[in-house]
Amino acid sequence: MRTYPALDLTWPTRPDDAHLERILAEIDVDGPTAVEERAAGARVFFSSPDPRRRAAIRIIALDPSASCTPVDVPDEDWAAHGQASLTPVTVGRLVVDPTDRPREKTSDVIFIRPSMGFGTGHHASTRLCLGLMQRILLSGRRLLDVGTGSGLLAIAACRLGAAKAVGIDHDEDALVAAKESVAVNDEAERVTLIAFDLTAKASIPGAPFDVVVANLTGALLVREVATLVGATARGGQLITSGFMTEEEDAIVEAFERFGLRRADRLEEDGWGAVLFTRNGAMRELAI
Questions:
Q1: Which residues, in sequence order, are CB contacts of 103 under 8 Å at separation 6+?
Q2: pLDDT tens digit at each of 287 positions of the chain
Q3: CA separation for the pair 195, 37 (Å, rounded)
Q4: CB neighbours (10 Å) of residue 253?
Q5: Which residues contact 160 (CB under 8 A, 6 or more apart)?
Q6: Kind of pairing, strands 142-146 and 164-169?
Q7: Please, what are the domains in the chain?
Q8: Strand 271-278, strand 191-195: pairing
Q9: CA angle at residue 286 from 280 to 287, to 5 degrees?
Q10: CB of 41 within 8 A of CB of 20?
């Protein structure tokens, strides 16, 4: 049976949500694939043991009072727990349903099976992206979902009127989960999924897009700003999230250096999201 490497984070007294979010933000660089909140702390999942080990070192260095216990979680345990604990999430006119309860299929409901693919709508950054997507015109446009995870944002784009959505991710488990999501939601004709490593310094297939959504980490957004802007069509829009609000100024500065303009923003529970617009007269970018 397949198992997933995870870290159980516990404290003598459970820290407040803000401290826990900062701990999780600190280990974003190690690529956690999912987070399960617990009474004494949290269980953080990783794609392999090496990033788990690096994350534990970072956490202890940041907060010596934390205990980091490595565990290997059977796949069926994760799925069973996810099905039991997650409930539907509503953002604007969209409902994200991560359960197996029968529900009528409508254009406003998106079914996402709990899995190691990030994106059931229960993380603030995902909700923020969904919120900003509903503040712009998507009808008839092409959208790129960078780090697609479960495929939720690509599917949501089509439900909001996009003619085509492309989801890219370098994680094989995420792409498997995304393919399942696309099939369950009957969006195979409009959603395309591609294995792609954003850090490869290559042009993204199908670029440029009318709208780009990048729910990543603050550090990755800044590091890959040229690639993300290059994937955005002239006159297009770029939604960024996955960063803490205290990182927002640095992210805005990085994208404004490439000629983008901050047009809107949202925040929730210490997490931020920014909508940028790309001026049609902007210079060509060397990716």
A1: 97, 109, 111
A2: 677 889 999 999 888 878 888 888 888 778 787 777 788 888 888 878 988 999 999 999 989 999 999 999 886 555 555 555 567 889 999 999 886 555 666 789 999 876 544 566 667 889 999 999 999 999 999 999 999 988 999 999 999 999 999 999 988 878 988 999 999 999 999 999 999 999 888 889 999 999 999 998 888 899 999 999 999 999 999 999 988 898 999 999 999 999 999 999 999 988 899 999 998 644 444 33
A3: 29
A4: 11
A5: 94, 133, 134, 138, 139
A6: parallel
A7: 3-80 (3.30.70.260), 116-278 (3.40.50.150)
A8: unpaired
A9: 105
A10: yes
Phi, psi of 137, deg, nearest 5: -85, 120
Spatial CA neighbour of 149 closest among 183, 184, 103, 116? 116
Structure tokens at 100: 């197996």
Answer yes or no: pTM beyond 0.85.
no
CA distances from 22 to 16, 28, 32, 74, 266 (A): 10, 10, 14, 28, 19
CA of residue 37 relative to chain centroid, distance: 17
